[in-house]
Amino acid sequence: MLIFLYGPDSYRSRQKLKEIVEHYEETHKSGLNLRYLDGKNLDYADFKNEIQITSMFKEKKLLILTDVFSNQEFKDNFLKNSKKLINSEDVVLFYETKEIPKNNSLFSFLKKQAKSQEFQLLSGQKLRNWVKKELAEYSAAADSATVEKLIEYVGSDLWGLSNEIRKLASYKNKGKIETKDVELLTRSKTETDIFKTIDAIASKNKKQALRLIHKHLEKGDAPLYLLSMITFQFRNILLVKDLLEKGKSLKLSQLHPYVISKTYGLAQRFAFGDLKKIYRNIFQVDYNIKTGKSDPQTALDLFIAEI
C-alpha cells in the first residue's frame, strides 16, 4: 500500500502522520517494522532491502520516506519497480512539505496510485474553524472577535497558533479567553518584526529598515497600521529614555516587563534629542498621509531616509 501526505501545512500533515503511526503501533506491538528513512540521501538498494527482509513477527511494515522528491536516482528506480508495491501488504508512506512541481513524474504516480492527502495552508473561515476546534481540545472557548485578534497577531502558522492557544487556555484555566488576554499574552508577529525595523533604524542601517518596511507592505500590512506600530514603539522608547535620563525606576513606565526589557536596549542606542525629533517626524508623516499630501509608501520611505 502507498500513502502520500504532502503540502505546506506541516502542522496538520504531522498530525495525520502521527495518527497513522499510532494506529500502526496499536496493531503491531513489536515496533520493529516501523522505519523512518531520509529520502534525500536514500539509496534505492537500501530501500529495496528494507522491503524484502522478512519480518520475524509476520507483521506489516511501515516505511516512512521524507524529502524523497529531491533524490532523482531514487525516484527513477522507484518508478521502474513501483508495480510491486501498489498491492503490497506493507505500507510505504511518502511525506513531503516542500513545494513539488505538478509535472513531477513521481508526484503524478502517487496522486494516481496512492492514498493521498494534500495539506494546504488554512485561511478565512477554515482557519477560524480550526482555531475554535483547537480551543475546544483544551476545554477553552473564545468569541469571534477574540479568534480574529489571535489570527491577526499570529497569522496562519498553526504551530504558532497551537502554542498560543495552549498558553492562553492554561492562563484562563480552560475558561473563556477574551481579546484582552490575547493582547496581554500574545506577541503580535507584526509588532515583533517592527522591533527589527526599529533596531535597524537605531543601527543607522536605513537599507535594512527600508527592506523590512517593504516586506510588510508586500504582505498587505496597511501603511497607517505600520506607522501606528512604529509610533507605539517609539513612544515606549521615549518614555523609557526619559526615565533613564532622570534616574528613575523603569517600573514607573507601567509597561509590561517584556516590553521594558525589549525597549531598554533600544533606548540606550538613541540620544534623547534624536528620539524627540523622530517622534515629531512620525506625526508629520501621519498628517501627510491622512491629508493626501504624500503617498503612504513614499511617506514611510522618506521618514526612514531622513532619520
Overall SS class? alpha/beta
CATH superfamily of the largest domain: P-loop containing nucleotide triphosphate hydrolases
Count of helix runs: 15
Tell me how many strands there are.
Answer: 7
CATH architectural name of the largest domain? 3-Layer(aba) Sandwich
Q: Which consecutive residue ranges, at least 5 long each, have pLDDT under 50?
A: none
How can the largest sheet be summarized?
5 strands, parallel
Strand-and-helix sequence, N→C? EHEHEHHEHEHEHHEHHHHHHH
Q: Mind telling me the C-alpha Rg?
A: 27 Å
> Can you tell me the CATH class of the largest domain?
Alpha Beta
Shape: elongated
Helix content: 55-70%
Cα(first) to Cα(last) distance is 63 Å
* Approximate strand percentage: 5-15%
Identify the strand order in the major beta sheet: 2-3-4-1-5
CATH level-3 fold name of the largest domain: Rossmann fold
Q: What is the mean predicted local confidence, pLDDT? A: 84
List the domain count as a whole number. Answer: 3
GO biological process, one term: DNA-templated DNA replication
EC number: 2.7.7.7
GO cellular component, one term: DNA polymerase III complex
InterPro entries: DNA_pol3_clamp-load_cplx_C, DNA_pol3_delta-like_C, DNA_pol3_delta_N, DNA_polIII_delta, P-loop_NTPase
